[in-house]
Structures are given as C-alpha cells and as structure tokens.
Amino acid sequence: MTTMEIDQVLGNNTTIGEGGAGGESGGGLKTTTNSTNNKKKNNNLLEVIQKENEEIKEIFKNTHDYIREAIVNQSKEVVAEILQQINLAWRRLKINLKR
C-alpha cells in the first residue's frame, strides 16, 4: 500500500500533486494533508456528542426525580390507607369496650 492509500484509509484526505517547477519546491511530489479540517470536524463532532451526552444526563436526572417523587407519593398514600384502617379498627375497639 502506498502512503497515499494509507492516508485515504485513515481519512487524512491526502492528495498527491506535482512539486514546483525545477528545484523551487524541492522538486518531485508533495503531499498536502487536510488534517486541520479533520481536527475541526472531529472537534465539532465531539462538541455535538458532549451536548447530546449532557441532554441525556438531564433526561435521566429528571426521570430519576420523577420516579422518586412517585414513590414518595405512593408511600404517603399507603400510609394514609393504613392509618384509616387502624383508625376504623380503633373506633370499633372503643365501641366494643364501651359495651
């Protein structure tokens, strides 16, 4: 595999072009790499992923808070029902003791 093929596989978008005329550019072939563009694309992608990650964290936090609140409310309802049943049994006991 040539260097150009390796760079293309790795996504370096390398192009091979002719050097300058004669010895101006050292002659021969020159390699131009768009690594700066790739870094910008990677940074933009990283920012998007980080933003989505924060949104997902917020969704999980809100879901957790909602579930916790629902459990607390359900617990309060259960306690209220138990207290009503105890109160009813207490009243019956009072009535039976008065007889």
TrEMBL record:
Record's compositionally biased regions (Low complexity): 30-42
Compositionally biased intervals (Gly residues): 17-29
Location of the region described as Disordered in the Swiss-Prot/TrEMBL record: 1-42
Protein name, as recorded: Uncharacterized protein
Annotated source species: Meloidogyne enterolobii
